Amino acid sequence: MNQEDVNLHSQMVQNYLKIVVEGKMIYANSHDVKKYIFGNLKEFQGYIFDMTRLRQIDSTGFGVLINVAKRLNEKQRKMVIIIQDPYMKELFFIAKFHFILSIVATEVEAIEALHQDRSEKWSISKY
Prior knowledge:
By secondary structure, the chain is an alpha/beta fold. The protein has helices at residues 30-39, 59-74, 86-94, 107-115; strands at 6-13, 16-25, 46-57, 78-82, 102-104. Helices cover 35% and strands 30% of the residues. The protein is globular.
């Protein structure tokens, strides 16, 4: 893997699409990441973004996730992010993602969060 490498793949989990992001979500690969994710946004009940193997994210990577969340909100679909690494989790909390999206540690928790009718503290459309 070189500095810009990111590995993306997806699979169905129940009625949800799980998109796995491994490596780095940075400016150098943001176009490819965005293209892959938006190309996979079909009419699923919800989306799980598995970032357990994410090693690095910058503001551009956060921006991609915000754009995805806004698009899904327009379609009245939910997304959940799985993060286990304490450092990565801290970055997402610093960016206030926990106010607009569910951040969980496991796939089971992600499915439970998608089943819940979660009212957001902040509106994603105003983020």
